[in-house]
Design a protein that fits this description.
Layout (H helix, E strand, L loop, with lengths): L3 E3 L14 E2 L6 E2 L3 E3 L15 H18 L10 E9 L5 E9 L6
Antiparallel strand pairs: 1-4, 2-3, 5-6
The structure holds zinc ion (ZN).
């Protein structure tokens, strides 16, 4: 089983670098780079690209399709409690600190 993919950057093969040159004299090409996939548990969105630049090119070209997978049509909210606590700084000065704690709505 092969554990590599071709870089998904849409213009990876247009980058003028020596490691992309393939072919014999007279019919040379710049070829998309191969990327070795990590173990499945370590695969993330960067695993399919040879560089952050190629990832950015892909994301910018396909952002509408990617967003369409899980569109955010309304804001999400996290229930919280906000409290003020007196705290002591490293030099001994007293200050008030705003503490935000999330509220467990799952019967906790
Ligand atoms: Zn690439």
């Amino acid at each position: 089983m092969s554990n590599f993919v071709w870089c998904h950057g849409p213009i990876c093969h247009k980058s003028h670098t020596q490691d992309r040159i393939r072919g014999v004299k007279g019919s040379k090409v710049l070829r998309t780079k191969k990327v070795t996939l990590p173990r499945p548990e370590y695969i993330n969105m960067y695993s399919y690209f040879c560089s952050q630049g190629c990832y950015n090119d892909f994301a910018n070209k396909h952002v509408r399709e990617v967003i369409a997978i899980a569109p955010r049509t309304e804001a999400l909210e996290t229930p919280i409690n906000v409290t003020k606590e007196q705290s002591t700084g490293w030099s001994g000065h007293i200050y008030m600190q705003t503490k935000i704690t999330t509220v467990d709505n799952n019967g906790g």
